[in-house]
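Teaching assistant here, posting this on the class forum so everyone can see the example we discussed in section. The complex has two components, and the goal was to see what a joint structure prediction looks like when all of them are supplied at once.
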Amino acid sequence: MERAELDGCVVNAGVGAERGAVSRRRAVGVLVLRRIALAVPVLLVVACGVFLLGAASPFDPIHQYYGEDVFTASDEQLAHTRVELGLDDPIVVQFGHWFGGIVTGDLGTSRVFHQPVAEVLAERLPWTLLLAGTGIVIAAVLALVLGVVTAWRQGGLLDRIVTAVGQGMEGLPSFVVAFAAIGVFSLGLGWLPVAGVTDGDSDATFAQVVEHLVLPALVLGVSQAPWLVLHLRQSLLTALADDHVIGARARGLPERLVVTGHALPTALLPFLNVLGTRVPELVTGAVLVETVFSWPGVASAMVEAGLAVDYPLLAVLALLATVAVLLGSLLADIATVATDPRVRADG
Amino acid sequence: MVEREVVDGSVREWRSAARTRAGTPRGGAGARARLRLGVGAGLLGVLVLAAIVVPWLWPASEQLFDYTQVRRPPSGEHVFGTDQAGRDLFVRTLAGLRVSLLVAVICAVGTITLGTVVGAVAGFLGGWPDRLLMRLLDTVNAVPHLLLGIVIVALYRGSLTAVIVSIVVTHWTTVARIVRAEVLSLRRRPFVDAAISGGATRGHILRRHILPAVAGQAALSAVLVLPHAVWHETALSFLGLGLPPHLASIGNILSDARSELLLGGWWNVAFPSVLLVLTTLATAGIAATLRDRLVPRRRSELAL
């Protein structure tokens, strides 16, 4: 920034920011409270829907409880268990029972993993957070670098390549990307392991985990990136045509300062928001990537629960994903309110 | 109006700020759009034709186990190679593509029906039914689509209906939103006022005036849903939660192919993947072109 002193806009932007800081903090507080108030009915309806789906399904919970033993158990035993589990109660009572358990922390027992659902979550959630966190960071970095370069040199060779590849990859399921990555980097070049988090049953040391994380995280990041790249490119193009950017150009500021100091901050606001609203796609990507790479996270547990009709785990994971989506959109809004002085609060 | 300036010795094209904000496409966009439509339609035509004709010409070899021909790499006899049971992957993949496309079309029809009904009712009635339906829509959108699909399909395992229902349930929201927006603007038009002063009932206006007017929009959104439906069904089948094995779709084939890939059978994965990608790209290309052509102002809204 060799001629930053010429840039009056950047300096002046700081004045008056302090005055707004207090009211902005209050706006964030109001926003969080409002969102929580809105999230409760959404979660309640989702829980209700998931429960009704389970209640209407042809799978009898008694089979889930007994497993194969249902064929050898006596009728009295079955009847006794039915009463004990409350399977013949009215559906409203059953729902109250189940939902009350979830609210008080009793999430039920997972049949696939032979342990309480809470334990499954505690064991597997950190792995998913690690994978998804790394993936989203990779996607965001890719989007920042490629988005800025392509918008800066719009119509250039790199722009045309990136735009074409990006649009093509939007239609590419992440498991196809995963197959290609396994084929090239694991089987072809032999650089990275194919699956799991450690080699065989060795301990989960840092180096081992990093080695196993690289490929799935890259696949997740790369498969999430195209949309973000194209979005950032588009909003940067719009920002480059804004009056304040034209003004910066007119003042003769260096090109680098115009793009990174004037256009990029404007374009980053919608980008932050978009990042937060991409959680559903991130969850979907995590399900597929974790399954392909046998990653021991909650997303692959969802698939295993689905395959074995492990209802308690399925329901809790669906609710968990909904919470993640709501949290993502809340974080996006907080980021917008916190960074954009023009935004007061949400409507 | 294209201005040029010289920066660092290279010529750069400039567009005035107003033009960029208005989103006017650059020169040559029309030709590119036509090319995209042509390539997309041609590609999809070839794929559909192949998916219909090839399994029909060799009806048996899709399911035929031939243990003398196990795990053969691509050759003149088996263009795509064979899988672990000696089935010819060329025929099997195209048969799978046929299943995938069929499911996608059924889903698109279901999606458009449900979405149009909900969107039209919400937009036309307004007030609390509108608010209630839109809240419901937000709630459905709050659950990641694939997870909702997994829950539905897991509880009603192994049936084609469950897969179709799971796709319709998760995708109608897009159509409903588009249709609602259209109805909201339509119901204030003079021809609706004329119908009201002519003594028409609300049901009559909805059926005879509103629904025909939104049909084009709804049809377009159904085309936009197609690639998503293909994708969704493939993902579910790939996870082992989709179509029953006797209705092998591309997803089922890819699911089997995963273990084959680790044994070195790259062709098990490569050819079905390529066909899948070509199909979704061709459909998405056609949909995007139609969208730009029919409703340029709705670009951002329709971005699925």
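For the discussion questions: Chain A touches chain B through 57 residues (CB under 8 Å). The beta strands of chain A are 109-110, 115-116. Think about how each of these relates to the inputs above.
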